[in-house]
Amino acid sequence: MTEPISQKIEKLTAVKGMNDVLPPDSAAVEWLEAKVRALMARYAYRNIRTPIVERTPLFIRGLGEVTDIVEKEMYCFEDRLNGDSLTLRPEATAGVVRAALEHNLLYDGGKRLYYIGPMFRHERPQKGRYRQFDQIGAEALGFAGAEVDAELILMAHALWQEIGLLDVRLELNSLGQASERLAHRKALIAHFEQHAEQLDEDAKRRLYSNPLRILDSKNPHMQALIEAAPKLLDFLGAESLAHFKALTDILQANGVAYTVNPRLVRGMDYYNLTVFEFVTDRLGAQGTVCAGGRYDYLFEQLGGKPAPAVGWALGVDRVLALAKESGLPDVSPALDAYAVVTDASALPLVLSTLQALRAAGTSVQMHAGSGTAMGSMKSQFKRADASGARFALIFGPDEIQARQVTVKPLRDASAAQQVLALADVANWAATLQSAA
Ligand code: ATP
Ligand code: MG
Fold first, then answer.
1. Among 116, 133, 265, 290, residue to substitute to test ligand 1 (most atoms within 8 Å of Cβ)
2. Of the four listed, 162, 236, 290, 323, which is most buried by Cβ atoms within 10 Å?
3. Which among 165, 318, 319 is the best mutation to test ligand 1's pocket, defined by most ligand atoms within 8 Å of the CB?
4. How far apart are CA 44 and CA 119, in angstroms?
5. Domain boundaries for CATH 3.40.50.800 within the chain
6. Full DSSP string of 58-109
C-alpha cells in the first residue's frame, strides 16, 4: 500500500553541471557522432568502449599528481564492499591504455582506436564547461612516427571541414623529451624565481613540483611573465626537432595551417614531443575544442611494456556550439508518415500494417489515443501536421472494411491522394525509399 502524499515533495533536479540533452538538441549530437563514426572508418580507427569507472590510482599515476584534474576535479568514491577508491573517468586516454595493457592489444602491432562517451570533472560550471560532458577521442597506440601525429591532425581537420567549422586554428608545440625538459625546467624555475612577486597561488605551489604547468595558466596578470619565459623549443635536440619538422612538413603538404605556440603545454603530465590544440575565438574563454599530443611514456608509467602513442580528444559540447553558430544542416530526423486511426477495434490490423511499413524502411508515427478513444479526425490531422510527416496514412472505417489505407500527402499540395491495398504497403514504402 502506498501512503497518500501529505507533504509537498522536494522537486528533484539534475546535478549541477550535468545536463539533460533533450530532443531536438539530441539530434545534433547524433548527427555529430554519425559524422565521426564514418570519419573514423575512413581512417581505419576502431571503436573501443572502456568503463566509466576506473580505479583512482590509474588517473593519479596516469595524469600526474600536480594536475588540475587530479588535484581538484575528480569524482572519487569508495567501493562500499572493499573500500577500493574508484573514480568517474575525467578523461579516457588512461583507461584506453589500461585496457590495451590488460588485453595485450599491441601483441601484433599498433592499434588505432576511437571512443565516444561521457567524462566527469568537478569544475565550476559555465558556458562550455560542465561536470559531465561528452568527449570523442582518437588514440593511435604503438606508433612512434610523426606521420601518425600528422594523420590524427589531418583527421580532425577533415572533421572541421565536413561539419562546416572553417575558423578553428591549429596550435602546435613540441614538449621534447624528459632530458630536454629538465634543462628547460631549470631555466624556467630561475625565470619565475626572479619574478616570484608576480606569481599567483597556483603558480607558487607548482614552481618546484611542475613549473611547466605554470605556462598553461589563464591568469591575465601572469601573461607577460609567461610570454617572457624561456621557450622549451629552444632546448630541443636534433631528434625532437626532426620529429617536429616531419610533422610540419606533412601538414604543409596538405595545406593545413598552424601556428607554433611555445606556451602550449596541455593539462596532463603524460605528453612528450608533439602537443596540439584546435582553438576558436568564438567561444569566449572556453576556446579549445580539441586537444591532444604524443604520450610515449604512459604505457610504462602505468606499469606496462613501453609503447609510443599519440591521440586527441574533442569536447562534443564545444564543437556543437560552434557548429550551431556556423549553421547546422537540418539534422532533425525525418518522419515519412503519421497514422490516423479512427476506431480502436482496427488497431491490431493497423499495427501489423505499420510493422510491414517499418520493416520496409519507412518511419511512421502512430496516433496513440487513450484506450478505446482514438480522438477526432480533426485533432489527429492536427497532430499529423505538427509531426512534420510527409504523408498521413488514414485508417478510417471504409478503409478498414476494404482492407485499404488512404495516403494523403501533407507537404506537397500538388501531389494526389491515393488509396492502397494493405497488402501493397511494402511496395509503396519501396518507392519512398528509392525516391529518397
Ligand atoms: P580546458 O583548458 O578548457 O580546461 P582541458 O585541457 O582540461 O581544457 P582536455 O582534458 O584536453 O581539456 O579535454 C579535451 C577537450 O574536452 C577540451 O578541449 C574541451 O573541448 C573538452 N572539455 C574539457 N573539459 C570540459 C568540460 N568541463 N566541459 C566541457 N568540455 C570540456
Ligand atoms: Mg580543464
1. 133
2. 290
3. 318
4. 24
5. 337-435
6. HHHHHH-TTSHIIIII-EEEE-TTT--EEEE-S-SHHHHHHHHHHTTGGGGS
Tens digits of per-residue pLDDT, 58-106? 999 999 988 889 999 999 999 999 999 999 999 999 999 999 999 999 9
Pocket of ligand 1 (CB under 6 A): 91, 121, 123, 128-130, 133, 135, 267, 286, 288-291, 313-315, 317-318
Looking at this protein, which amino acid is placed at residue 212?
L
CATH value of 25-176+236-325 in 3.40.50.460, 3.90.640.10, 3.30.930.10, 3.40.366.10: 3.30.930.10
Q: What is the dotted CATH code of the domain comprising 337-435? A: 3.40.50.800
Q: Which of 118, 124, 140, 185 has the alpha carbon at shortest distance from 43?
A: 140
CB-CB neighbours of 360 under 10 Å: 15
In this structure, what C-alpha cell is assigned to residue 130?
560542465
What are residue 276's DSSP bridge partners?
A: 172, 292
Atom of ligand 1 nearest to the CA of 277: 18
Q: What is the spatial distance between Cα 216 and Cα 211, in angstroms, rounded to a whole number?
A: 10
CA distance 282 to 264: 19
Verdict on whether the full-model pTM lies above 0.90? yes
Task: Give the torsion through C-alpha atoms of 105, 110, 116, 117, to 10 deg.
Answer: 40
